[in-house]
Amino acid sequence: MRKCLRCGSDMKEDCALKIEGSGNAIILSTDTGDSSIFHGKIGKPKVAICPFCGEVSFYTDELKKL
Ligand SMILES: [Zn+2]
Q1: Residue 55 C-alpha to ligand 1 middle, in angstroms?
Q2: What is the CA(10)–ligand 1 centre distance, in A?
């Protein structure tokens, strides 16, 4: 279980990040260069939310790609 960095409570995991409006997806990548968008692509970030203090953490479970 993921613990909140701020208050140490159990966080609600496996939440999705949704972008209203544009429809553009957010992806995680190990490649910081702008030219090769698909190189080093890891996947979509997952979100954990603390139900007590509202802290939001991004994480990925695609660790084998890192
Ligand atoms: Zn918290």
Answers
A1: 5
A2: 8
